[in-house]
Amino acid sequence: MSLKVSRNGGASIEPVPEGSQIGICVGLYDIGAQRDERYDKVNRKVVVTWELPEVTMQGGEHEGEPRLISKTYTASLADRAVLRTDLESWRGRAFTEEELDESDLVNILGKPCMLQIIHNSVNGGKTYANIKSVTQLYKGIPVPEPFTPLKAFDMDSDSWRWDLDHGGLPEWIVNRVKESETYKDSLHQEEVTDALLEEPEEMKAF
User: What residues contact residue 1 under an 8 Å CB cut-off, 6+ apart?
Assistant: First the structure.
């Protein structure tokens, strides 16, 4: 056994191939208000996950299963928002004023599209596959039923805390949620509530 190690050591999975790939939206995850330390900003984020029916896992217990790819967006339909750009390109039409006031993202679950995937390397090291664009699927292209169960997670739901721990979410999504300011604020509120409930009756009188 070698004791020589490097930054590229450990198990790795080849990135999804570059180029155009059919994608089926199978996951929509609200990951709360995320802090960007670089710009010192906090924005609500949402992760969209697509199944790639023509790109499958090679080897291991998941041999032959379709690969997944995700993109994280700021949860906004503002003029320059990437989410708005990708959704309008996917839909093939612009949002109406009424849709811009409120749109339910859950409607994209199960819907197919065409993804343009590119590769990027970080500091000359590991290569990652990233989604460059999302467009309408060409007419006539057959799309299979998704292998991956459709799943949505909404932190505005009354049951979001239970769903986070028991809803079968991907581990990395759970970790991202627990990094959010939304999750931290929820924990703090619980601590405050618990402290008030534990106060002696004579203290509550004041």
Answer: none
- Tokens representing 63 are 């041999």
Sign, CA torsion 133/76/151/144: negative
Which one, of 59, 84, 66, lies nearest residue 26 by Cα? 66
What is the average pLDDT across 1-26? Answer: 72
For 90-110, b where at least 16 C-beta lie within 10 A, e where not — what string?
Answer: bbeeeeeeeeeeebebeebbe
Task: Output the pTM of the full model.
Answer: 0.86
pLDDT tens digits for range 14-30:
899 999 999 999 999 99
| β-pairing verdict for 19-36 and 151-153 | parallel
d(CA 90, CA 157): 27
